[in-house]
Fold this protein.
Amino acid sequence: MKLEWSRAGIMRAVTTIVAVAMALYHVNAIIYGTPEAILFRGTHLLFALALTFLIFRVNGTQNFSPSLFDFVLLALGAAPILYLFLNYEYVVTRIFYIDDLFPLDIIFGVILTAVVLEATRRVIGWALPITALVFLFYGLFIAKLEWMRLLDQLFMTTEGIFGIPLSVSASYVLIFVMFGAFMERTGTGQLFMDFAMALTGHTAGGPGKVSVMSSSLFGTISGSAVANVMVDGPIAIPLMKRSGFPPHFAAGVEATASTGGQIMPPIMGAAAFVMAEFLAVGYGQVIIWALLPAVLYYIACFAAVHFEAKRRGLVGLPRSELPRLGEVMRDRGHLFLPVAVILFVMYSGYSAPLAALCGTAACFPVAALRKTTRDAVTLRNLLDATVEGARNAVPVALACACAGIVIGVVTLSGLGIVFTQFVARLAADMLVIALILTMLAGIVLGMGMPTTPAYIIMTALLVPAIIKLGVIPPAAHLFALYFAVLSAITPPVALAVFAAAGIAKADLWASGWAAVKIGAAGFIVPFMFVFQPALLMIGSWPDIIVAFGTASCGILLFAGGLHGYFITAANHWQRVLLCVGGLLLIDPGLVTDSVGAVLAAIVILSQWYARRQAPGKAADPAPAKQSP
């Protein structure tokens, strides 16, 4: 037993060394410049494979007791990458697709492809590896690609495993994930929760609004819906249940709010960095495009919680139980500074990775500024944050490497062009149908795999089709990104809902449909900015302001219709008019806005009159038999 504990301790130390080395390597690359593509991306993948086989077992569990088989796979994964490094001149000077592969090229190419598939399976499950295998089957047996050319594409070039997705993971994702780990370790999560509690905890349905606000704040630094739920949910969900929300609704609120963190600037999920790379723009530009749609998404969530709470007659928490905003800002408000550092550096013209590095470097010194957070400033905590950041980057790195296999097949076979033509024919040149097909594809792909690879595959197959039908590239890419993200709350496979329902002890299906209902207005947001690019801050300021104002009003009306409350409880015809009026206001155009405003006015005036006639009953909770 002592030997086993000793072995586990040794392996834990080895894992820590590898994780710290991975972090330091990427910090060095940011400061002194990245090496050549194959060297940089290969080293990133080598670290990710090493951590995978040191931590993740064959059955997907995590421990520090790797078997002999794990070490064999680690060696097999490292050998092809080291082979490329040792023969670097040969790799970069050969003419790919023209020069035949040597036997060792073939052997190592097959080995690396197999090891990447296995490592990805261990870390994020079967969905993405199976997808990659399906594309390999298509390439070899349907598209009839020459197997040597396909292997050349996947292993010997930067168009396959070592392609743009892995480049984004190496250049951007690790340092931003590390920033999130540093922020969490210095107590920023508690700051976000207390800040939200102080602002909204006392209002109707206050704990639900706290969940929306704190999840949006924490989501910007975590970039993962499930991680957000697991950090925020254990605090927010019991508070929501205590205030009177049913367990399934509390789970739905937490899942929906947590999911939006991946699309919420200033620090979005990993897929946003891939989007910047695909569009060849700076990450700061992506933030600008994504800002108003993300705000609209959270307006929808906030409104859903408010109207549901008013319909049920729920009140907020007593002020005596809530933190005071002044005390929160005095005790922990300085922890917002690292985020401010990132924004300042980024908008001073420096790269996003350097900005993230500066923000990361500021976390512990900023925490040391005040006694209330100084306890977090320890060497042990710094080491743990570094290791956690490196470990949290592993799933993204492997997802990007595995998605590179898909991209390699799509590029070499021309499947992207074929699929674009197929979607265009199927939609009969009708943009709405093409958008609906893209939406469904994003939800289906995202059900079984993380946001980043789902978005990458959509970019290869579907985004060109909607661009061909007239959608501007930023709107097309952000549309695909949105639905890859929203798959986390869409049944039957909704990972964020599963996590939240587990905490709430609620039924999975009821929680899933509650999440869809809460985020329903958010599902409309992508269609809005496709038809009205002003919502991406593209166009004149008057157009942007008008578009955002009418869209916000439309979302509020739509949420009120769905949840049966606006000024007071809404009957059936009022709910219908609220939903229709909201949709018309969301749709850009003078005629639709005018009709939507008239419908909204009818409901508002009728509810205002009813409230004047019976003020004591206007805010009464709905009968218990009313649908939840």
Q: What stands out?
A: Confidence is low (pLDDT under 50) at residues 617-628. DSSP finds 30 helices and no strands in the chain. Residues 22 and 47 are 6 Å apart (CA to CA).
